[in-house]
Amino acid sequence: MSTRRTRTIVAALATVLLAGSMAACGNSDTGGGDGGGDGKIVLGFSQVGAESGWRTANTTSIKDAAVEAGIELKFDDAQQKQENQIKAIRNFIQQKVDVIAFSPVVESGWDTVLKEAKDAGIPVILTDRAVDSADKTLYKTFLGSDFVKEGRLAGEWLVEQTKTAAGPVNIVELQGTTGSAPANDRKEGFAAAIAANPNLKIVASQSGDFKRADGKQVMEQFLKANPDIDVLFAHNDDMGLGALEAITAAGKVPGKDITIITIDAVKDGMQALADGKFNFIAECSPLLGPQLMELVKKVEAGEEVPARIETEETTFTQEQAREALPNRKY
Ligand code: GZL
């Protein structure tokens, strides 16, 4: 075989191997993957995972908005592991993307990799969840909800609903992912709202990791250990929906024997609320894609952006859920 032909085959093999190694770096969808050679802005996005209906809707919003905005999206699903997010961010730095955005699965442990992005001259946008870094120059802005407020609204509704209750009101709490901003902040907001009412007692509180199956499992434990549960406060709809199964299996009527308060307002949660199985939901909108893409264009162009952009959202009672359901986008 001629040397030229051998060289051609070797070069082809090397290209295939290189492409394979890039794809093997994680659960990444590298979009066009041409590094923006066509003049498009290239955004590297590290997503928490696919743990809940909220997260699925958030991913759809981001992917659709990138297409709409003409932005090349390199998307990585970290499967709820911080080490995967750090790996993905380092990958994006190596690929010299224009902007990095991510939803940090937990609040702590980001300074080193965010400093690497800063040293590489790549702006970072926090999306959905925040980090506890003291150095605010490590990211350009934080786009997302006020989770303390969501927890407070949930607590305030319960205070209003129980102000004529005679005896103790026993509450169990399904927390979100341990160490995550939404779990920490929702817990803080709810506790602060009920603090002035000593009859409102949190008798058990444990993480269900924002997942339906874990919510069911932990609720089963709560029911075994606490015969008189009056209220469930779940940090998201998915854990509340899992808990519904455990409550029903225990022969109790959700929404009546046990009042259920959740956060998110995804379609399945709103349906449970409309059906009377949930009693109140504080909304947490996942539809961050369009705002994120506008911010990406601004920071890429070197424009100033606000340090904090808070998502607008509301709350729902059973009646309001029945009215809102037909028009819900997620
Ligand atoms: C909140 C988001 C949370 C949702 C959960 O902005 O980070 O993570 O409340 C999701 O449903 O898993």
What's the total number of strands? 13
* Main sheet strand line-up: 1-3-2-4-5-6-12
Number of helices: 11
Strand content: 15-25%
Q: How far from one another are the termini? A: 60 Å
Can you summarize the main beta sheet?
Answer: 7 strands, mixed
Family: Belongs to the bacterial solute-binding protein 2 family.
InterPro entries: Peripla_BP_I, SBP_2_dom
GO molecular function, one term: carbohydrate binding
Subcellular location: Cell envelope
Task: Write out key terms for the chains shown.
Rossmann fold; six-stranded mixed β-sheet; binds beta-D-galactofuranose; alpha/beta; Monosaccharide ABC transporter substrate-binding protein, CUT2 family; elongated; carbohydrate binding
Please describe the topology of this protein.
Elements: H1 3-23, E1 28-29, E2 42-47, H2 53-69, E3 72-77, H3 82-94, E4 99-102, H4 111-119, E5 124-127, E6 141-144, H5 147-161, E7 169-175, H6 181-194, E8 200-207, H7 212-225, E9 231-234, H8 237-249, E10 259-264, H9 267-274, E11 280-283, H10 289-300, E12 308-310, E13 315-316, H11 318-324
Parallel strand pairs: 2-3, 2-4, 4-5, 5-6, 6-12, 7-8, 7-9, 9-10, 10-11
Antiparallel strand pairs: 1-3, 11-13
Helix pairs in contact: 2-10, 3-4, 5-6, 7-8, 9-11
Bound molecules: beta-D-galactofuranose.
Beta-D-galactofuranose is lined by residues 51-52, 54-55, 128-129, 144-145, 182, 210, 236, 238, 263-264, 284.
Main location: other
Region (Disordered): 311-330
InterPro entries: Peripla_BP_I, SBP_2_dom
Task: Please give a structural write-up.
It contains 11 helices and 13 strands. With 330 residues, the protein is α/β, with parallel strands linked by helices. The longest helix is centred in the N-terminal third of the chain and has 21 residues. Helix 8 links the parallel strand 9 and strand 10. About 5% of the residues have low confidence. The strands form 2 sheets. Strands 1-3-2-4-5-6-12 form a 7-stranded mixed β-sheet, sandwiched between helices. The chain has a 6-stranded mixed β-sheet with strand order 8-7-9-10-11-13, sandwiched between helices. The protein has 2 domains: 136 residues, 3-Layer(aba) Sandwich (Rossmann fold); 138 residues, Rossmann fold (3-Layer(aba) Sandwich), CATH 3.40.50. It is elongated. Helix 3 packs parallel to helix 4 and helix 9 crosses helix 11. Bound molecules: beta-D-galactofuranose (GZL).
